[in-house]
Structures are given as C-alpha cells and as structure tokens.
Amino acid sequence: MPPQVDVLILAADLGTLQIPPDAQNLAVLNFQATGTSASSDSLQAHQIDALTQKPASMSAILTDASPESLRAIAQAAARISADFDGPQANTPKIGRESAEILVEAIDTQATGPVWPVSAPDGYQSALLPRARPLGIVWKNSELLPAEQVRSGLGSIWDFYFTAVRAGQKVRVSWSSPSKNRQESRLPKLCSHRPTAAGKPWLEFLKSASPADLGLGRAVRIDQIARRAGLLQWYDFLDESHQLSQSIEGEGDDLRGDYWHAIMHRREPDYSNAKYWFRRLGEPVQYAALACAARSILTSCNNSASDRWRDKLISDDQWNPFAFVDLCQACAQDETSDLAWAARRIQFAEMCLLLSFD
C-alpha cells in the first residue's frame, strides 16, 4: 500500500497541481500551502505544526509544486517506506535512511558526478547548503520528536542538520541545475559580501570543531586551509583571507595559498591574484582543471571561447594567469555565455581544491 505523505508547500496557495501519474502510484500526497510567500530556503516553526500533529506516516516540505518536484517527493517517500515497512521491517534499522532531502545541483560538472567533491561526511554536510534545497521528506516515527523538529527549524537546511546531528541517516538526491542564470547558486567571479541570511553559516563555519567538519585526523595546517576553503565556498572572502594568510607558504600542497590566490581574483585584485598564483608553482589540481576547462569552453556558445581555450590550455598545461585575465574580461556581465563558462571553470577549480582525493 502506498505511504500517506502530508506535504507542506512554501507558497501563497496551491494553484493547480499537476501530479504525474507515476507519482500517484508511488505515494498518496496530501497538500497544504503555507498561505504566505516564502524564499526557497526559509520557513517558520509554526508552519510545520500542522504536519507534526497529523497522523500520516510521512511528512514533507517542498519549495515548489512543479511536476518534477512532486514526482521526486513521491519517489523519496516510496524508498523510505520500502526501507521501514517492506520486507526489511523486522531487521535492525542501523544504516537505514529515515529522511531524504531533494537538492538542485549547482552545475553539471565536467570533472565528475553532479556533486563532484569527495570528502568526509562532516565536510560534505558543511558544503551542501551552497546548493538550493527543493524539499525534504521524512518518516514521522523514525526521524525526531515533534518538539525537536520545531526547535531546529529555521530552514530546510537547519532541519537537515538537526537530523544529521541527532544521528539520523539522510539521503541526498539531486535534480538538474537551474537554467535561470540569475537564480543560479554557481559562485560568482566577483563576489559580494553575503546577505544577512548567510550569517548563521558564518557562525557555524567559524565555530565548528575539526571533528564536526570531518577534519579530526588532519594536521593543523590542512585543517586551517580546508576551513578557509569552506568560507570561500560561501563567499566569506575576508574571513577566508584571514585563515589563508595565517598559513602562508605552509603545507606540502600550499592549499592555503591557492585559496589566497582565488580570494584576490574574486575580490577582485587581479595583479595580487597573479602574484599568489606565481608562488604556487604547479598544483596537482591543474591537470584535471585543464581537462574540465577544455570541455566547458568547447561547449560554450561564444565566438571568443576557442581563443580563450587556447590561452588557458597549452600542451595540456593550465595557465592560471590567463584565467585571471578571463575573469577580469567577464566581470561586467556574469550571465553572458563566456562569463558562465568562466564561472563553471571556477566551480570545477573549487571542487578540485575542496576534494580529499
């Protein structure tokens, strides 16, 4: 029997719901709108009270009611139900996922899968909120007591972290990246200070222990460099700069100096960025970055893309100084085809630098 799911949609009203037929076969979805418009990330505690007080076996929160999101939430509910109510119902529950969060990919990467960062669980969790959450679904009897859910609820990501810190297993499912460049979460070439909404992440990234971030076994220099990378990931350039400066010239891979160079390129202070890239030598990430950049620029619909590809990559060697020049050339309009390619290359660069491979 398909699971019953109470779905809270962050919208002023439900409008006309188009539930795909295959979704209807997977789960019985009961809808309710919040009654007020909401940003894609935010919701308030009182908005979930109706869910935690209803008898349905599962609950969900969605940021939109597109057919794709409705199908995804039904598929997630069916997976969770099969885990807990199917043939495995009487087996130990250790390792089973009692919730699933639906996330929009930031980019379709040339360097690997939709989420191309290989890292310990704590570090992965800290990276995820750069992406846009589309929804979350959970089994009411297995996730958290209602009062704990409400106390941890400032956003879908707060909900996710509340569950993870309580020892719950939460599956992450990805959708295709948005085609709307204005709304994309792809890091910008020239970064502005994050809004007030980003402040909780700053406090978390500064206060989280190395163990919280999956860095408990890393040496001190690598801990600092990787925390500088997290801050850069969320556009906290000044704070990232302070950390990378504190380990200048240290570490076998000079990872801190690499983040220092990226910070100045995004500041932007292009001549200073080139100074720091000059000090790096040939980081191990350059070979994979050259490969990713070639693929991205080959698919770019801009008449100058071939010329820039030849500048950036010569005999399979990456030219970081030419990339600084490309970022400078694209700074005025970051939604143009060429700028979009540069942003995708920068994202590949960040992912390679954040990875633990």
In short:
The protein has 357 residues and is α/β, with parallel strands linked by helices.
Would you kindly provide a written description of the structure presented here, covering whatever features stand out?
The chain has helices spanning 21-26, 46-52, 67-85, 121-127, 146-151, 156-165, 199-207, 220-233, 237-246, 255-266, 270-280, 285-298, 305-312, 320-330, 337-354, and strands spanning 4-9, 28-33, 58-62, 99-104, 132-139, 170-175, 313-314, 317-318. The chain folds into 2 domains: 4-175; 196-354, no CATH class. Strand 1, helix 1 and strand 2 (28-33) form a beta-alpha-beta unit. The protein contains 15 helices and 8 strands. The radius of gyration is 22 Å and the shape is globular. Helix 10 runs antiparallel to helix 11 (270-280). By secondary structure, it is α/β, with parallel strands linked by helices. The protein starts with a strand and ends with a helix.
Radius of gyration: 22 Å
Largest sheet composition: 6 strands, mixed
Measured between the Cα atoms of the first and last residue, the distance is 43 Å
State the domain count. 2
Q: How would you describe this structure in keywords?
A:
357 residues, alpha/beta, 2 domains, 6-stranded mixed sheet, two-stranded antiparallel ribbon, 15 helices, 11% strand
How is the secondary structure organized here?
Blueprint: E1 4-9, H1 21-26, E2 28-33, H2 46-52, E3 58-62, H3 67-85, E4 99-104, H4 121-127, E5 132-139, H5 146-151, H6 156-165, E6 170-175, H7 199-207, H8 220-233, H9 237-246, H10 255-266, H11 270-280, H12 285-298, H13 305-312, E7 313-314, E8 317-318, H14 320-330, H15 337-354
Parallel strand pairs: 1-2, 1-3, 4-6
Antiparallel strand pairs: 3-5, 4-5, 7-8
Helix pairs in contact: 8-9, 8-10, 9-10, 10-11, 11-14, 12-13, 12-15, 14-15
